[in-house]
Amino acid sequence: MAEETQERLEIQELLRRHPAEVAEILAALREEEAVELLRRLYLRRAAAAPLGEMDPEEAARLLAELNRDEAVQILSRMDPDDAVDLLAELPKETVQDILRRLEEREAKQLSELLSYPPDTAGGLMSPEVVALPQDMSCQEAIETLRRVAEETETVYYAYVVDEDRRLVGVLSLRDLVFARPEAPIRQVMRTDVVALPEDMDVEEVARTFDKYNFLALPVIDKEGRLLGIVTVDDVIDVIRAEDTEDMYKLAGAPLEERVDTPWWRSLRLRLPWLYLNLLTAFLAASVPAIFESTIARATALAAFMTIISGQGGNAGMQAITIVTRGMALGEVPKGKGWRILLKEVILGLLNGILVGLVVGLAAFLWKGNPWLGLVVFLAMVLNMLNAGVMGAVIPLSLRALGLDPALASSIFLTTFTDTLGFLFTLGLASLFMDKL
Ligand code: ATP
Ligand code: MG
Description:
Blueprint: H1 2-16, H2 19-28, H3 31-43, H4 48-53, H5 56-65, H6 68-77, H7 80-87, H8 92-101, H9 104-114, H10 121-124, E1 131-133, H11 138-148, E2 157-161, E3 167-172, H12 173-178, H13 185-188, E4 196-197, H14 202-212, E5 216-220, E6 226-231, H15 232-250, H16 263-290, H17 292-297, H18 300-328, H19 337-367, H20 370-400, H21 409-431
Parallel strand pairs: 1-2, 4-5
Antiparallel strand pairs: 2-3, 5-6
Helix pairs in contact: 2-3, 5-7, 7-9, 8-9, 14-15, 16-21, 18-19, 18-20, 18-21, 19-20, 20-21
């Protein structure tokens, strides 16, 4: 009894919170607890908004744990653009089953939205947009907005369409409020409308928002007909998702993992990458074995070898990070990769010389042998050059192969900087063997 009262108090407290905060709580709970809470929210008709605020993948996992009718109810109360993100994460049969159970109008709307690739403007948009006929007066337009406010994504902008639903103008709420009530909207509207083609890539969509600073942009089809609206909040989600995606992949870290992922799942996600890394590490480790006699004669080489390979790894990571980000931002047109490569070659040489001088001098002063200094210097220059070339070539060739350039670039990079770093040092050392 006391427990029940306690639960009721807790849920009332949650209902007062913003859905985004409830979403955070749901994401932080263990799965069984989250499902339990979701069910209680559902009974109070308060599950849709927080689910819409969650990461679609996590939200879909929770939704799949509810029974089908509960899931259908919740989906029908969600904004269609959020609902469709969530559906996209569910198995095909589940989606079909859910669509069959939804009201016909809703099912039609959602399956239409599902047909757009998720990484395009069409995949981001909500169809719930205000479309006004051109011959309305401003007064009528405001009344229409008031009436439809509840079921539209935003009333901030109203779009004006012709008889064929082609987009011909736009009005902000401010434009309407300040116009004479009886003025026809065609006189007030702006006709140079910025619109997103349905198949525009999300990264391009984000750039367009960044450029024009509107709170929402309309989406049109090839004939210029108004299909829906993308609001800036959806774009922020995309930018964040793409950013973390690139960051994770660069480090060869598993995408699905979050800070609160249980340790056993994290283990399963991370271990394969570490094994791959190990494989390449063996490759690097086999180099000193070949040059055993060289190392035996000049043990100082062992110390400088790790400095040279480590330095190469870091320099290469600098290049990879810049090149990958540049490609993600659309600053590296296809076919223009050689310019990037050239820059990295120059940088690798100069950095190699400047760093090599310091390390070479240190080697000379330590052992009093100028030849050791020279070997270390040359090996550093060569490996920094190698790092620059690979830092550009790895992401560029991954992209040319149609693969994601951010994909585990660092693991490939260290294979080269370690193996060749050892090879340069020991190879040069055996050339100057009798002087060391
Ligand atoms: P406030 O500045 O108070 O938010 P506002 O009316 O200035 O209100 P903005 O978002 O700044 O609204 O938009 C400025 C102008 O841009 C408005 O007159 C609006 O009609 C116009 N506008 C809105 N969307 C588009 C678009 N997609 N293409 C071209 N013009 C647009
Ligand atoms: Mg303004």
